[in-house]
Design goal:
Elements (H helix, E strand, L loop, with lengths): L1 H10 L7 H19 L23 E6 L4 E4 L5 E6 L3 E8 L7 E3 L5 E4 L8 E9 L5 E10 L6 E2 L1 E3 L6 E2 L5 E5 L5 H9 L1 E6 L4 E7 L2 E6 L8 E6 L11 E2 L3 E7 L3 E6 L4 E6 L2 E7 L10 E6 L2 E9 L1 H8 L2 E9 L6 E4 L17 E3 L1 H10 L5 E5 L3 E2 L13 H5 L31
Parallel strand pairs: 2-8, 9-17, 11-18, 19-27, 22-28, 25-26
Antiparallel strand pairs: 1-3, 3-6, 4-7, 5-6, 7-8, 10-12, 12-15, 13-16, 14-15, 16-18, 19-20, 20-21, 22-27, 23-24, 24-25
Length: about 425
């Protein structure tokens, strides 16, 4: 408006200081009037409808406890631990020095956040936790930290099973460490170990030794289950200045439910597949001086042809060296299912073996072609009980006893629940190593 007025005055050739001064004075008066209308009667403070008042503080609040602000030498395995108050929604963001966002997962309890993989060594990161209350106003907490340099002492993590393998319903998940994990650190390690199964099934990790941990469900795996297990060990402190070398992830498939049951009383093996009896096989178990073990075992390895040599164990008088077909190992102590053509006349009636489950050549071949690593077998009614630890005896323990091997307190779920395919005629190769 003023520019237009100036142009109009100029066109009329008016002198400076004439009507222009009069116009300026009028404009000042209007401005003062407007200013007066936009203030209250108390010193010219803005009225509330103009929006100039202070915004109320957010109802929610957030605090990051780990890593602490400006922390140095933070393990590359670190997660973000925090607390919130009056939050109906919580979001966590972690970025590196280049501003790249790191993927991660919020814990079920809403108190921590874990990256999907180990962080870079010697890198600066910024963690931001945003809590939003029912008032819709966000409150944020920020922590800047730097990860440690790559450590010289690193522990390898390996899996017996490899990606894509198809195993039996009794197969435990087996993870090994290249160095003993001190007892005080096992809960930290176990909390970084997750198992996802489809369909979901309840299960738990069990420490067999300081260098080995296994997982089994409460009942045998359901047939055709898809299982994925992950160990987030990269950069994880494991005691005495040692750290996990890398993360490990394995995906496997559970095959059909093939279960073998041997009754010493009847000298018969009953084989079921997915709940239906598909074969009954005469057997000969261990004689009284070398009885077979009663208990639940699983197939550990399969050898189409091998040689049993016991001279070192039993000496020159009792030892023997024999070629064996269709051998399936059940214990570390030397109990197998295998073909024994020399005892076919006693199978189904008399026990004559050195502790193995003897079957005919034909039945040995049939079993060998139908079983997988991890298929369970239960032997009943012999003179000797299976010793836990003599093989993969995870199913020879009650659920309550198995739970005792966990370094993390067991909490039953509200609802039950939380691979190159090998030739079944071969022993599985060693799994991946991290």
């Amino acid at each position: 408006m003023r520019a237009d007025q100036d142009q109009l005055i100029g066109r009329r050739g008016s002198r400076p200081g004439g009507r222009r001064r009069l116009f300026a004075a009028g404009l000042l008066a209007v401005t003062m009037a407007l200013t007066s209308a936009c203030t209250d009667g108390d010193g010219g403070k803005p009225s509330s409808w103009q929006g100039g008042g202070e915004s109320p503080a957010p109802k929610a609040a957030a605090t990051i406890s780990e890593p602490q602000a400006d922390a140095k030498d933070v393990p590359a395995s670190t997660g973000i631990t925090f607390t919130t108050k009056d939050a109906v929604e919580t979001a966590v963001e972690l970025k590196d020095s280049a501003g790249t966002a790191i993927e991660g997962t919020l814990a079920a309890d809403g108190k921590s956040w874990l990256p999907t993989g180990a962080l870079k060594y010697g890198e600066a990161y910024t963690a931001t936790v945003t809590a939003t209350g029912d008032d819709g106003r966000p409150a944020t907490a920020t922590s800047n930290f730097t990860t440690m340099a790559k450590p010289g002492n690193q522990i390898r993590v390996s899996s017996f099973l490899g990606d894509g393998q198809v195993v039996g319903v009794g197969m435990p998940l087996i993870v090994k460490f290249s160095r003993a994990v001190p007892e005080d650190y096992r809960d930290d390690v176990q909390r970084r170990m997750t198992v996802t199964s489809t369909p979901a099934q309840e299960g738990i990790w069990h420490w067999v030794s300081p260098t080995e941990i296994r997982y089994r469900p409460k009942a045998f795996w359901k047939a055709n289950t898809k299982v994925s297990y992950r160990v987030q060990a990269g950069g994880l402190p494991m005691g005495n200045g040692w750290y996990g070398r890398a993360d490990l992830t394995v995906d496997i498939t559970i095959g059909p439910s093939l279960i073998m049951t041997v009754d010493n009383k009847t000298k018969r093996m009953t084989v079921t597949r997915n709940g239906s009896v598909i074969k009954t096989i005469p057997v000969s178990l261990g004689k009284k001086s070398t009885p077979s073990s009663s208990g639940t075992m699983v197939v550990i390895e399969k050898l189409r042809k091998t040689v049993f040599d016991t001279f070192e164990e039993l000496g020159p008088e009792d030892g023997y060296r024999t070629k064996i077909d269709y051998a399936q190992r059940l214990t570390w102590g030397g109990e197998f299912i295998h073909a024994a053509p020399w005892s076919e006349g006693q199978q189904g009636s008399v026990n004559v073996s050195h502790g193995c489950v003897n079957v005919s050549m034909a039945n040995g071949a049939w079993l060998f072609s139908n079983t997988r690593i991890g298929d369970p077998i239960t032997v009943k009614g012999t003179e000797r009980k299976l010793q836990n630890g003599n093989g993969w005896t995870d199913w020879n323990m009650s659920w309550d006893d198995y739970v005792k091997g966990s370094a993390v307190p067991y909490e039953p779920p509200a609802e039950p629940g939380t691979d190159a395919t090998p030739d079944p005629d071969t022993t599985p190769s060693t799994g991946p190593t991290a």
